Amino acid sequence: MDDLIQKLKVQIIEQLNLEDMEPEDINPKEPLFGEGLGLDSIDALELIVLMEKEYGIKIQNPKDGQKIFRSIETMASYIQMNQK
Amino acid sequence: MQEIVVSGIGIISSIGNNIDETYASLIEKRSGIGKIEILETLRRDEFLLGEIRLSHEQLIDLAEVDPAKAWTRTALLGIVAAKQAIKDSGIEARNCSLISASTVGGMDRSELYFKDFLTEAKHKAYIDSHHAGNSTEMIAGQIGIKGLITTISTACSSSLNSITFGCDLIKSGKAKTVIAGGTDSLSKFTLNGFNTLMILDRELCRPFDEGRRGLNLGEGAAYLVLEEKSAAIAAGRKIYAQVAGYANANDAHHQTASSGDGEGPFLAMKNALEMAEIMPGDINYINVHGTGTENNDLTESIALKRLFGENIPDFSSTKAYTGHTLGAAGVIESVISILALKRSVAFPNINFKSPIKETGLIPVTETKKLKKAGYILTNSFGFGGNDSSIVFSALKKKTSGANKPKILANPVFINGSGCVSPQNTLNNNYLHDNILEHDRNFLQIVKPNYRDFIDIKALRRMSKIVRMGMVSSATALQEAGIVIPDAIMTATGMGCQNDTEIFLNSIIDDKEGLLAPTSFIRSTHNTVSGAIALAQQNHSCNLTFVHRTFSFESALLNSMMMLNNNKAKNILLGGFDEITEVSWLIKTKIEFFKTNPINSLGLYNDEQKGALAGEGSSFFVLSNEESDKSYAKVLGVSMFFRPENNNEIKHEISAFLNQYSMQAKDVDLVILGFNGDQEFDDIYRNIEEDLFAETSRANYKHLCGEYDTSAAFASWMAAGILKENKIPETIIRKKANKDSVSNVLIYNQFRGINHSLILLERI
Questions:
Q1: Cα separation of B523 and B220, whole Å?
Q2: What is the mean pLDDT of chain A?
Q3: Cβ-count burial of B627 within 10 angstroms (0-12 exposed, 13-18 middle, 19+ buried)?
């Protein structure tokens, strides 16, 4: 799980072009949207692409993203549960 | 104020190749949306489209054009519709203006040949048909227009804005008759782009329905003939409608999503009603934007409730018929609104079942005879928060104002400027020292420290062109001491090239597979002006002109019209273009740009074909009042298209100067757009020898390179020269025996096609 969290941090920084951010700056429990990292609906779509490209997980309804992408931790556990 | 009427209509979309077919489809509830037959996409079986079911060859036949020439589908659709409009009204097209709109321009061909542009000579003809103004020039060429032509691109509201700009041109005496509208064809670019946003309904779209899942894309073109009312009556034209009121406002909420309170749409509708001098209760039918996306229809419902309260007029979206035709949507729905007015009917909102829970609005679902059809409202909203509304009315018997245009008489003041360029210009250092020499194939900007100007969280979303625009606009505003200007007028010839290339490459390389949305949403031409409005939370009018070397000049003209008509006190005006390795390389293939690196200071003697490519962004705060910060006055701007010979150019220059009681010899400094392409630089050489033999002459493209909006850089220079009363050594071609510079004329042209003049004066 820790390895996955670390990998996700790197991938998110890359995919979302989070300038000036290092993996250790992101708290895996911290909310990704709103208050926390300040991501928005476009970032959610970018993360949907990341999930499919890197982990083979398809998210059909963008609304499901709200729960899955709450934090790095929720993303990691969703990946663990759904990866074939 | 003059009154404007519609005296001719032309239209083609998936529900008909002319106005009669369009009307029949609407009342018979016949949608044009269906399985994909024409667009060559690998996603053919996944999506439905509102296609015009005519092949490229069939469209060439319908448009009656030479099949041997390189046509884009966008241009062909435009030609079909514009020819109809002219025939319908009976006007003489030659002296008309043509104001068009498009979002993707010639993308339908670019996406087929993009990878071949560098290798296959036979596709070269389509390299220059990519830009958004190309279809406008093709139409102008086909119908023989000699008046002002230009193009607007503000995403999905584009063609409503071309209609309103057309009306303003007539009211300001800049045109007598305007053909205004827009054209957009379907492309893999937009299909895959909207798919990345997950807002395409895979079934038929259902606007304003609780179960709506997104939009269906469509294609089409439409044009209106606009004339001053008494002139149209005197000419015995049939009159379809009067353009009673219009407005553009900005939602200033998000690059693509619309706001929770519907501020932009609310302001657009409210201000359009105010201009028409009517109350909400006077509106008899609204053709809403109603795309069928969750976000738009909810926001639009909220805005409708804010303006109309509990008494919402009959309304419907007709996007379930035509699909969302993007840049053409505004004018197509204007035609539909005019049909509603003429026939006193509200058209049904097909595929509607149950109202949106939050707002409960119920559109018209069967063709409904209207008891009264006095005023019809139509909405078009686009990315970049760009929201527009127009009110059409029946012909009013009484004329409320004068029938003479209000001539643009007053100069405007440059009260602030900011420039990002391949020189050290950001501190408004007027090129007296530290001139940078470049030894490259193309010139790139001196990179500012972006973080000094842009919030770090916003920065990650911004490509180079947006960053340049943000920095130079912030500098201009700061100098002028203005926080929120009354309007934002921007110009770009090629727009966000880098993002367009990224998305185009990924469509082709990934075979229309899994694509990320960011580069697509950033590829719209109004990305920069939207980002500026967003950063300022500025809800005022926000337009982007995208017509090659007419872009900046058109935005300047519109700014001057707005200031003269007291529609604004302070306007933020800017022109910007970016160069990329790929766009430069592609244009070397058609000899627009030089292939081999040169020393930029030796530009004017270089024998290689083409210009030295460059980039930059220059912004100004224009005001109708002088301030202690004023640089100079802008007296006027003029554009002319395809002059037949050098004599016609000289005549245009003399006629322009004559408007300001000047002759060529009265000009103190003429800045010429020499770009090192010897063939076309001959035009300048001829003009300067004949008209400006005794005048100080300057050139500037060794400093900034050639790009479509480089006249903005020249204007920035001219403002500085007039303020300092001093010409920097580096730009002098010939110095006259005169120490003082009290006025500057800028003459720029693109390959003998688009010519422009800007005249500035010292305060």
A1: 21
A2: 90
A3: middle
Distance between CA atoms of residues B497 and B489, nearest Å: 20
pLDDT of residue B376: 98
Residue of B nearest to A63 (CA): B198
Amino acid identity, position B170: I
| Catalytic (active site) residue B651 | no
A2 Cα to chain B: minimum distance (Å): 27
Q: With contact defined as beta carbons under 8 Å apart, do B7 and B240 qualify? A: yes
A53/B514 Cβ within 8 A:
yes
Residues above pLDDT 90, as percent of chain A: 64
Please report the pLDDT score of residue B739 as a whole number.
82
Neighbouring residues of A11: CB distance < 8 A, sequence distance ≥ 6:
A50, A54
* A54 pLDDT above the threshold of 60: yes
Rg (CA), chain A: 12
Single-letter amino acid code for the residue at B702: H
Cα–Cα–Cα angle for B12, B15, B17, nearest 5°?
Answer: 35
Determine the pLDDT at residue A36: 76
* CA separation for the pair B754, B134 (Å, rounded): 12
Nearest chain B CA: its distance from A46 CA (Å): 6
Q: State the 10-residue block means of pLDDT for chain B, 763 residues long.
A: 94 98 98 98 97 98 97 98 98 95 97 92 93 97 95 98 98 96 98 97 98 98 97 96 98 94 98 97 98 98 98 98 98 98 98 98 97 96 97 81 72 97 92 92 96 88 96 97 98 97 96 94 96 97 98 98 96 98 96 96 96 98 96 97 96 97 97 98 97 96 98 98 96 92 98 98 97
Residues A37 and A29: their CA atoms lie apart, in Å, by 11
Longest dimension (CA), chain B: 78
Which of B256, B456, B457 lies closest to A42 in CB terms?
A: B256
Classify domain A2-82 at the CATH topology level: 1.10.1200
A73 within 8 A of A67, measured Cβ to Cβ: no
Q: Which residues lie below 8 Å from residue B342, measured CB to CB, with a gap of 6+?
A: B240, B241, B373
* Three-state secondary structure of B133-201: CHHHHHHHHHHCCCCCEEEECECECHHHHHHHHHHHHHHCCCCCEEEEEEEECCCHHHHHHHHHCCCEC
* Domain layout of chain A by residue ranges: 2-82
Distances (CA, A) of B518 to A47, B194, B253: 11, 11, 17
d(CA B463, CA B578): 10
> Of B123, B253, B289, B438, which residue is the catalytic one?
B289
> Which ranges of B404-515 would DSSP assign to H, the alpha helix?
456-459, 464-480, 497-509
B357: buried, middle or exposed (CB in 10 Å: 19+, 13-18, 0-12)? exposed
- Asked if A46 contacts A33 with a C-beta cutoff of 8 angstroms, the reply is no
ipTM for the whole complex: 0.93
Domains, in order of start, for chain B = 4-393 (3.40.47.10), 412-495+546-761 (3.40.47.10)
SS3 B416: strand
At residue A35, the pLDDT reads 76
Return the closest-CA partner of residue B45 out of B521, B519, B512: B512
- Closest-CA residue to B392 (of B243, B562, B284): B243
- B461/A17 CB distance under 8 A: yes
Q: What is the predicted pLDDT for the residue at B408? A: 74
